[in-house]
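Our collaborator T.R. sent over the components below with a one-line note: 'Predict the complex.' Nothing else. No constraints on interfaces, no templates requested, no preferences about which chain binds where. So this is a plain run: every listed entity goes in together, and whatever single assembly comes back becomes the starting point for the next discussion.
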Amino acid sequence: MNKILSKTYFSERVVKLEVEAPLIAKARKPGNFVIVRVGEKGERMPLTIADADLKRGSITLVVQVMGVSSRKLCALEVGDYITDLVGPLGKPTHIEKVGTVLACGGGVGVAPLLPIVKGFKEAGNRVLSVIAGRTKDLVILEDEIRALSDEMIIMTDDGSYGKKGLITEGMEEIIKREKIDLAVTIGPAIMMKFCEKLTREYDVPTIASLNAIMVDGTGMCGACRVTVGGKTRFTCVDGPEFDAHQIDFDEMLSRLNGYKDTESEKLHEFEK
Amino acid sequence: MSGVSDRNAAWRQQLRRDIPGKERTSIERVRMPEVDPVERIKSQRIEVNKGLTPEMAVLEAKRCMDCINPTCMEGCPVKIDIPGFVKNIERGEFLQAAVILKNTSALPAVCGRVCPQEKQCESKCFYIQKLDKQPVAIGYLERFAADYERESGRVSVPEVAPANGIKMAVIGSGPSGLSCAGDLAKKGYDVTVFEALHEIGGVLKYGIPEFRLPNRVVDAEIDSLKKMGVKFVTNFIVGMTDSMEDLKSEGFKGFYVASGAGLPRFMNIPGENYNGILSSNEYLTRVNLMGADSEESDTPVYHGKRVVVVGGGNTAMDSVRTAKRLGAERATIVYRRSEEEMPARIEEVKHAKEEGCEFMTLTNPVEYIADENRRVKQVKVQKMALGEPDASGRRSPVPVPGSEYLIDADVVVVAVGVSPNPIIPRSVEGLNISSKGTIIVDEKTMESNIPGLFAGGDIVRGGATVILAMGDGRRAAEYMSERLTTERI
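Returned assembly:
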């Protein structure tokens, strides 16, 4: 189980892994995630499921090299096994026909956005997508998202591809032009914070898929807790998706940095 | 079994005749040898209690009067044949003692270490009931027999009935699930235990620290279950990875849900989500399951200089003692009642104090204060007074107005209780759930309103003890089997 069936590089630091996991492939829904652990000393790390292939009994994970654990995962080759893989976890995205959906993904956040875009398209919605990356290298799954979208805008911070600017600029262009019934945002917490700010100004209902620090992923520890509408919620069992306008993003951003010192120490050790 | 545990066996009659009662009752209760506090707080992995030597165990076993009506057994939720195993220790048949233990308990080395014996078997001992003397150290003796067998390398496997080919699913591999699995396997069922985490053992692995219960001890008992034919599947969340319906269609006839009460409670006071504040479950899981105390582990944990632990149960004691071992200069329990009301085992409180942990009782946090990086730096606490006894007989704490003051803390561990995990209750349609989120079962049979679905342990009781969870597992195994043989589920 958990054998790596294929490995593709989107860029030097962003890797797509297709992993054997027949039960998860069958049970997963858009919005679900898995927890992986690499090696006996490895930590448990959450990753959203980007795709599944029922025939091959596999799921697709997109990983960006950040710290020790993502490095260990990305170092695995075809034929290697992931030590532990559990899921699907979290509540699936609530998908229905709402009209026009604005799908916004930044960086590797475009990977978990893909099944959601697929779901909303299949439910009969008009789907407009804005995908972004800091530079051209970090824009992923462009063709897949385009194939499912009625329209797509690509944004890069440095203008090396698509339009130059932040994801919010692309979003605003569309929101100004036509009525949006629902926006979905997935990406770095800071990006989602600004997406939420923009859609609040225009009064567009928005859901955000949060990427909190997790340990077990089953509601056992509260490491992933977040304040939504003034109440403490656990991202792993109550989320990962919440009404973006109710999320305390500043708190979330600070919690993501909770272990920053130890993380960089461990990475330093690992690189030596 | 008769030769081993029959009270009227010749050897046992002889033992009773050999030593007069007066002589037995004049023996002092054995004292558990312990590692010195200064030494043991250097590592999370040094077990505090060293266990009895064979000489100590035999002497302690001599204290047992081999009562005609052994009241101690009434105090044990799994009804271990206590005099039976103790008398085998007295005559030096340590391996026989282990065999008797394993007949009724899947985890004797665990129970001997973590049961609150002072509230269970030992509280019903003849010595304390009739003589007002220290009870026989049943827990120490249980641990001795189990450890002796494990270390002897001659581990017996309990007798298993011929395989009947009927598949049973146990959901959760904590003490309740393991106990049920063991009993079902003995009855000849084909048992599979499904576990969500990557390790078997539930709270025995992620919760109770190595200094109280080494993981190798838990693994040895799990090995015994494997030898009895029990299968284990890790990384499998029933209700998410696969539904109970799917498992049914794969031929599973009965289900025992023992998914525990893993959802940590918070107090919902201002600042509780600042960095550096975490649930005891997160803290203990990082250290115990993920090995975050070791440099080689990829999992980080907060190392605080000044750690405050909120709560007064065993989990709070485990957390505060863990903090000390992670290098805290000061590790303090903040508890809203007085020490007398603390639910933690007396031994754990004593050990914590020996290790330099501090206790602030009749005190309760009301707010957390953070630095500019949102990292906790202080706790605002309030003095409490004890009011009238509540329905449960415990005096409830009442805040003293105007008594707030600040204490320093760079790590806060919240250990104020747990709630049932919602995944299973959520995933089974029509299952009867209480307002607290526990699964409602028939108290006698442990069966829920869904035929063939049984439940026990913390998912039924809320947060309780290892041994009560094991008792539920035994009872469920009994009735699951009965239901299948008499009316077919």
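Summary for T.R.: The CA atoms of residues 136 and 160 of chain A lie 5 Å apart.
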